[in-house]
Amino acid sequence: MAALERIDVVLAIIIGVLAAIVYSLRILVLMDRKIARIEMHIEKMAHKMVKEEYQIERELKGLKKKK
Length: 67
Prior knowledge:
Layout: H1 2-66
Protein backbone atom coordinates (compact mmCIF):
# COMPACT_ATOMS: atom_id res chain seq x y z
CA MET A 1 0.00 0.00 0.00
CA ALA A 2 2.76 2.46 0.81
CA ALA A 3 4.31 1.94 -2.62
CA LEU A 4 1.04 2.84 -4.37
CA GLU A 5 0.71 6.00 -2.32
CA ARG A 6 4.23 7.05 -3.27
CA ILE A 7 3.50 6.46 -6.94
CA ASP A 8 0.34 8.52 -6.66
CA VAL A 9 2.26 11.38 -5.07
CA VAL A 10 5.00 11.23 -7.71
CA LEU A 11 2.43 11.16 -10.52
CA ALA A 12 0.56 14.10 -8.97
CA ILE A 13 3.81 16.08 -8.80
CA ILE A 14 4.66 15.26 -12.42
CA ILE A 15 1.19 16.25 -13.61
CA GLY A 16 1.41 19.48 -11.61
CA VAL A 17 4.77 20.35 -13.14
CA LEU A 18 3.49 19.61 -16.64
CA ALA A 19 0.42 21.78 -16.04
CA ALA A 20 2.66 24.63 -14.84
CA ILE A 21 4.83 24.31 -17.95
CA VAL A 22 1.80 24.41 -20.25
CA TYR A 23 0.41 27.43 -18.42
CA SER A 24 3.71 29.30 -18.61
CA LEU A 25 3.98 28.53 -22.34
CA ARG A 26 0.48 29.90 -22.81
CA ILE A 27 1.48 33.12 -21.05
CA LEU A 28 4.63 33.38 -23.18
CA VAL A 29 2.59 33.02 -26.37
CA LEU A 30 0.17 35.72 -25.25
CA MET A 31 3.04 38.06 -24.39
CA ASP A 32 4.68 37.36 -27.74
CA ARG A 33 1.46 38.30 -29.53
CA LYS A 34 1.22 41.53 -27.55
CA ILE A 35 4.82 42.43 -28.34
CA ALA A 36 4.24 41.69 -32.03
CA ARG A 37 1.19 43.96 -32.01
CA ILE A 38 3.19 46.74 -30.33
CA GLU A 39 5.96 46.36 -32.91
CA MET A 40 3.38 46.61 -35.70
CA HIS A 41 2.03 49.86 -34.24
CA ILE A 42 5.56 51.26 -33.94
CA GLU A 43 6.25 50.40 -37.59
CA LYS A 44 3.03 52.12 -38.69
CA MET A 45 3.99 55.23 -36.73
CA ALA A 46 7.48 55.20 -38.25
CA HIS A 47 6.03 54.94 -41.76
CA LYS A 48 3.72 57.87 -41.07
CA MET A 49 6.64 59.92 -39.76
CA VAL A 50 8.72 59.13 -42.85
CA LYS A 51 5.80 60.05 -45.09
CA GLU A 52 5.39 63.39 -43.29
CA GLU A 53 9.14 63.96 -43.47
CA TYR A 54 9.11 63.52 -47.27
CA GLN A 55 6.15 65.85 -47.53
CA ILE A 56 7.97 68.52 -45.51
CA GLU A 57 11.10 68.10 -47.64
CA ARG A 58 9.05 68.49 -50.83
CA GLU A 59 7.44 71.66 -49.46
CA LEU A 60 10.85 73.06 -48.50
CA LYS A 61 12.23 72.30 -51.98
CA GLY A 62 9.21 74.07 -53.51
CA LEU A 63 9.83 77.14 -51.35
CA LYS A 64 13.51 77.23 -52.31
CA LYS A 65 12.68 77.05 -56.03
CA LYS A 66 10.27 79.98 -55.73
CA LYS A 67 12.95 82.22 -54.20
